[in-house]
Amino acid sequence: MDEFDNVSGTQRMTLRIPNSISNVLKKEADKRDLPLNALITKILFKNVSYDMQINTLPAVTVSDVLFSRIIDKLDVNDLEEIAKEGPDIIKKIFAIQGIEYTLKEVMDKHFVIMGKYCGWYSFNNTGSGKAHRLVFETQLGTKWIDFLMLYVTNILESLKITINAKLVHENVAIFKFTT
Questions:
Q1: Rounded Cα distance, 164 and 174, in Å
Q2: How far is C-alpha 16 from the chain's CA centre?
Q3: Between residues 118 and 95, which one has the greater pLDDT?
Q4: Alpha-carbon distance values, 159 to 19, 63, 66, 87 (Å)
Q5: pTM of the full structure
Q6: Which residues of 160-176 are buried (b: 16+ CB within 10 A; e: fewer)?
Q7: Which residue(s) pair with 132 in the sheet?
Q8: C-alpha 92: how far from its chain's center?
């Protein structure tokens, strides 16, 4: 649940939008078979989430093709070294935002957001209660899945979590553990 989900109800607003933007929004809403209001709400939510959760520290946006090619050029030692920095970066972002560095917050405010808005992967926590099963699916290549395994492992270990099982099948990485 995102912090925005805690706000109940809606509020009516009147905004002036240039015709050029209005036309683009209407076409996009039709293309997605969404009401215009739903599309605008989705865009605003995505933008606010991105700015608050991801863009807290300077970030670079790059196409997934180029990103995948960059990752492919790295060897295993480079991937391991970069992945080790993951927990420190997340801790810094969370500290700036006043978010506690816990498993729940990492899942809600990092894994979910990075998956939704950066396209790193699709993420699901399919566990229940204290048993967790984190599933990451990506289309960014085998080196990326290798990096993702290292990255998530470092994050979970920094949270003092003992991973019971790690599985990789083609473009899917699965982590199983209990808390």
A1: 11
A2: 32
A3: 95
A4: 49, 31, 31, 9
A5: 0.74
A6: ebeeeeeeeeebebbbb
A7: 177
A8: 16
Look at residue 175 and give its three-state secondary structure: strand
DSSP symbol at 33:
T
pLDDT at 15: 82
End-to-end CA distance of the chain: 19
Per-residue pLDDT of 43-61, as tens digits, reads 787 677 666 666 665 666 7
Which residues are within 8 A (CB) of 164 and not within 5 positions of it... i.e. 6 or more apart?
Answer: 176, 177, 178
Q: 175 with 154: CB under 8 angstroms?
A: no
User: Is the C-alpha dihedral spanning 136, 140, 143, 148 positive or negative?
Assistant: negative
177: helix, coil or strand?
strand
Distance CA(121)–CA(138), nearest Å, equals 4
Reported residue count of the chain is 179
Q: Vertex 127, ends 9 and 140: CA angle to 5°? A: 90
* Conformation bin of residue 33: beta by default, left when phi > 0, alpha when psi is -120 to 50: left
Compute the distance between CA of residue 58 and CA of residue 4 in angstroms, rounded to an integer. Answer: 23
Tokens 């509020």 map to which residue? 11
Q: Which amino acid is at 27?
A: K
Q: Would you say the C-alpha torsion 71, 77, 79, 85 has a positive or negative sign?
A: negative
